[in-house]
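Key result, reporting period 2: structure in, sequence out.
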């Protein structure tokens, strides 16, 4: 019997989101993940950062009750990713870490390149990139550019009516 290749999507988006953006994105992510699941995508890569990554990870984890085949893989740039976060953000991150199906740590310690390595790892393991990109600079824009170069399908939630 031949192994079926894992079909995966990755998330990328801005860290600095308003509470309104977070709530709006949580609503639009559910049908987005459902549509990808219906296409056969069951694995979702997430970088575990604040903002969009947190909203995306929590969405996948919540949806696992209805869709048990969903898998959340956290691509962690370095073990100390959350060191400078608030206590509540660190607690939420620890909860996500504990419930993720898999964790991949890209660098043993922080380097100026570990975030980029994390983003490229996720793109290299996915066929679809679900983004929340509202500006053409920064890590999210670089990740989207890399994904386009690699031929991934892009879903930018910032271009959807319900995310604005």
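The corresponding designed sequence is given below.
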């Amino acid at each position: 019997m031949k192994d079926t290749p894992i079909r995966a999507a990755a998330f990328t988006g801005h860290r600095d989101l308003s509470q309104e953006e977070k709530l709006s994105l949580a609503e639009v992510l559910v049908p987005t993940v459902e549509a990808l699941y219906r296409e056969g995508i069951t694995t979702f890569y997430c970088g575990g950062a604040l903002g969009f990554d947190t909203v995306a990870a929590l969405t996948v984890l919540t949806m696992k009750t209805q869709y048990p085949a969903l898998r959340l893989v956290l691509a962690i740039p370095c073990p100390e990713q959350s060191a400078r976060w608030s206590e509540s953000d660190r607690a939420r991150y620890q909860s996500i870490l504990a419930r993720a199906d898999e964790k991949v740590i890209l660098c043993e310690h922080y380097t100026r390149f570990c975030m980029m390595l994390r983003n490229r790892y996720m793109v290299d393991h996915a066929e679809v990139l679900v983004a929340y990109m509202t500006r053409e600079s920064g890590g999210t824009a670089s990740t989207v550019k890399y994904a386009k170069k690699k031929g991934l399908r892009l879903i930018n939630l910032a271009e959807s009516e319900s995310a604005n």
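The longest strand covers residues 8-13. The domain at 8-108+149-163 is CATH 3.40.50.450 (Rossmann fold). This case is discussed further under Risks and Mitigation.
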